[in-house]
Design the sequence.
Protein backbone atom coordinates (compact mmCIF):
# COMPACT_ATOMS: atom_id res chain seq x y z
CA UNK A 1 0.00 0.00 0.00
CA UNK A 2 1.23 3.47 -0.87
CA UNK A 3 2.25 5.35 2.27
CA UNK A 4 1.43 8.77 0.76
CA UNK A 5 -2.09 10.12 0.65
CA UNK A 6 -3.41 11.95 -2.40
CA UNK A 7 -3.10 15.27 -0.55
CA UNK A 8 0.62 14.65 0.04
CA UNK A 9 1.49 13.35 -3.42
CA UNK A 10 1.66 16.70 -5.28
CA UNK A 11 4.14 18.19 -2.80
CA UNK A 12 6.15 14.97 -2.84
CA UNK A 13 6.32 15.12 -6.62
CA UNK A 14 7.31 18.76 -6.54
CA UNK A 15 10.11 17.97 -4.09
CA UNK A 16 11.31 15.09 -6.26
CA UNK A 17 11.39 17.38 -9.29
CA UNK A 18 13.39 19.94 -7.34
CA UNK A 19 16.02 17.32 -6.62
CA UNK A 20 15.99 16.24 -10.26
CA UNK A 21 17.05 19.78 -11.07
CA UNK A 22 19.95 19.40 -8.65
CA UNK A 23 20.90 15.91 -9.84
CA UNK A 24 23.97 16.77 -11.89
CA UNK A 25 27.37 18.02 -10.65
CA UNK A 26 27.50 20.77 -13.29
CA UNK A 27 24.15 22.18 -12.17
CA UNK A 28 25.26 22.13 -8.54
CA UNK A 29 28.44 23.94 -9.57
CA UNK A 30 26.45 26.58 -11.46
CA UNK A 31 24.21 27.09 -8.42
CA UNK A 32 27.27 27.44 -6.19
CA UNK A 33 28.69 30.10 -8.52
CA UNK A 34 25.35 31.90 -8.47
CA UNK A 35 25.29 31.68 -4.67
CA UNK A 36 28.61 33.52 -4.57
CA UNK A 37 27.68 36.01 -7.33
CA UNK A 38 24.06 37.05 -7.03
CA UNK A 39 23.93 38.30 -10.62
CA UNK A 40 26.32 36.91 -13.24
CA UNK A 41 26.51 36.95 -17.01
CA UNK A 42 26.61 33.80 -19.10
CA UNK A 43 30.06 34.91 -20.27
CA UNK A 44 31.30 34.93 -16.67
CA UNK A 45 29.56 31.62 -15.94
CA UNK A 46 31.36 30.08 -18.92
CA UNK A 47 34.69 31.39 -17.65
CA UNK A 48 34.03 30.23 -14.09
CA UNK A 49 32.87 26.73 -15.03
CA UNK A 50 35.12 26.14 -18.04
CA UNK A 51 32.22 24.58 -19.92
CA UNK A 52 31.34 24.63 -23.58
CA UNK A 53 28.54 27.13 -24.30
CA UNK A 54 26.13 24.46 -25.56
CA UNK A 55 26.59 22.31 -22.44
CA UNK A 56 26.15 25.24 -20.08
CA UNK A 57 23.05 26.29 -21.99
CA UNK A 58 21.50 22.83 -21.56
CA UNK A 59 22.15 22.84 -17.82
CA UNK A 60 20.83 26.37 -17.40
CA UNK A 61 17.70 25.29 -19.24
CA UNK A 62 17.16 22.47 -16.74
CA UNK A 63 17.73 24.85 -13.83
CA UNK A 64 15.19 27.30 -15.29
CA UNK A 65 12.67 24.51 -15.88
CA UNK A 66 12.95 23.48 -12.24
CA UNK A 67 12.59 27.10 -11.08
CA UNK A 68 16.03 27.22 -9.50
CA UNK A 69 17.38 30.15 -11.55
CA UNK A 70 16.00 33.09 -13.48
CA UNK A 71 17.47 34.80 -16.52
CA UNK A 72 17.39 38.44 -17.57
CA UNK A 73 18.54 39.80 -20.91
CA UNK A 74 20.41 43.10 -20.78
CA UNK A 75 21.37 44.37 -24.22
CA UNK A 76 23.34 41.54 -25.81
CA UNK A 77 24.08 39.64 -22.58
CA UNK A 78 22.03 37.28 -20.44
CA UNK A 79 22.44 37.38 -16.68
CA UNK A 80 21.43 34.66 -14.25
CA UNK A 81 20.60 34.65 -10.57
CA UNK A 82 19.11 32.22 -8.10
CA UNK A 83 15.33 32.21 -8.28
CA UNK A 84 15.13 31.95 -4.49
CA UNK A 85 17.75 32.72 -1.82
CA UNK A 86 16.83 29.44 -0.13
CA UNK A 87 18.68 27.61 -2.92
CA UNK A 88 21.93 28.94 -1.45
CA UNK A 89 20.77 27.79 1.98
CA UNK A 90 20.04 24.33 0.59
CA UNK A 91 23.55 24.14 -0.89
CA UNK A 92 25.08 25.22 2.43
CA UNK A 93 23.09 22.61 4.38
CA UNK A 94 24.05 19.88 1.91
CA UNK A 95 27.73 20.89 2.18
CA UNK A 96 27.54 20.71 5.96
CA UNK A 97 25.84 17.31 5.80
CA UNK A 98 28.45 15.97 3.37
CA UNK A 99 31.31 17.15 5.58
CA UNK A 100 29.74 15.37 8.55
CA UNK A 101 29.22 12.20 6.50
CA UNK A 102 32.85 12.27 5.32
CA UNK A 103 34.16 12.82 8.85
CA UNK A 104 32.07 9.93 10.16
CA UNK A 105 33.29 7.69 7.34
CA UNK A 106 36.91 8.64 8.06
CA UNK A 107 36.43 7.86 11.75
CA UNK A 108 34.88 4.49 10.92
CA UNK A 109 37.77 3.66 8.57
CA UNK A 110 40.32 4.72 11.17
CA UNK A 111 38.70 2.51 13.81
CA UNK A 112 38.61 -0.41 11.37
CA UNK A 113 42.34 -0.04 10.67
CA UNK A 114 43.12 0.02 14.41
CA UNK A 115 41.10 -3.15 15.04
Sequence:
Amino acid sequence: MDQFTDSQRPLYEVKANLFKGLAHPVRVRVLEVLSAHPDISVTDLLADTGMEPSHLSQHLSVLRRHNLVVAERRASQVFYRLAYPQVADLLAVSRSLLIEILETTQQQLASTVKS
In short: DSSP finds five helices and three strands in the chain. The domain at 9-84 is CATH 1.10.10.10 (Arc Repressor Mutant, subunit A).
